[in-house]
Amino acid sequence: MIRVVGLGPGDPDAVPAAALAALADAPDLFAPPLAPALVAVLPRPPAPLGPLEALPAGAVVAAPDPEAHRLARALPGAETFPARDTLRDRAIGAEVAHLAAVGARLRRECPWDREQDAASIVPHTIEEAFEVADAVAAGDTVKQADELGDLLFQSVFLCQLLEEQGEWDLGVVARGQAEKLIHRHPHVYGDARAETAGRVVDQWERIKRADRAGQGIFHDLPPGLPALAFATKAQKRAAAVGFDFGGVPAALAALREEVQELHADPGPGELGDVLFAATAVGRQLGEDPELALRAAAQRFRSRVDRAAALAAEAGLRFEELTPDEQLGWYAQGRLLGD
Predict the structure, then answer these.
(1) Which of 84, 103, 237, 239 is most buried, with most CB under 10 Å away?
(2) Which pLDDT score, from 0 to 100, does residue 258 have?
């Protein structure tokens, strides 16, 4: 059986002794290109790693943890040292640490990065979060990975700024988040029971409310949130203390009532009530209203583009048509599907 051995993060001084012991008796030792200093600490120089399918039985492949993890994924039948789950965890840790090191160097050596502070970075963070949402909505996994990388670096860079102030660092922030998640998932890490997603959410809100007793019902409700996110979060806070609709039918009934009031008195107040009620329906359905509206806007954009293209194929300029003619092309476009 082929064996893949992780050499740690890639630093010659950080190669685990157990990894070196695992290489000592290897009959056939291979490795991808390694730094000379890393090769120097191995029991003997490895042979160059060629095509994986050409590896002989019993071969041992050594590599820094991130590359060892990638090799292990490409060799699903191989044994790994350490175990696959541990190797994965170490590989992720090494890659995130490398990203943090890149951020620290940019902060030292890049004129633009040196000038930034948390206030100037946050608008980019918000933009990256929306780009992640767009990639998820599009179902584009390649773009998701790229945009998630951009968003991850935003968090890493903001942690770097905190570290420079002598307060926190990425490790402390990550540990705090892990501890919070463990504390708020007693059905996973403790003896509590929560068989459904709805019960998990209720339990989460109860624990959060207990942790922040005295802060009021609407704690941690940033006024700068986008309106739909602000409305959703406010409704969740109220629901956590029992002030909520009994389900989708009740929320739909409230929406119909608000629409009737908007018919009777068109204006910003009644329009806001309709949007707020529609947000409640989305929450009862378990759908994020922000994402639902963005998806609807994208569908509208695609349909109008398709209508304009169909009109152009007929020798017409969409913007020169009457509203009724435009609607006719729009209807034809919808028949073709989204």
Answers:
(1) 103
(2) 96
- Please list the alpha-helical segments (H only) found in 139-247: 141-164, 170-183, 186-189, 197-211, 227-240
Q: Which residue has the tokens 């695992």?
A: 22
Listed range (243-247, 301-305, 324-328, 332-336) with the worst mean pLDDT: 332-336
DSSP secondary structure of 9-71: TS-GGG--HHHHHHHHT-SSEEESS--HHHHHTSSSPPEEP--GGGPPTT-EEEE-HHHHHHH
Closest to 229 (Cα-Cα) out of 293, 155, 181, 150: 293
Residues 6+ apart with CB under 8 A from 204: 184
- Higher-confidence residue of 217 and 113: namely 113
- The position carrying tokens 């009644």 is 270
- Residue 337: count of CB within 10 angstroms of its CB: 8
Residues sharing a CB contact under 8 Å with residue 233, sequence separation 6 or more, in sequence order: 221, 225
What is the chain's length?
338
pTM of the full structure:
0.73
Q: Are 78 and 2 in contact (CB under 8 A)?
A: yes
Contact (Cβ atoms closer than 8 angstroms) between residue 140 and residue 130: no
Strands 29-31 and 47-48: parallel
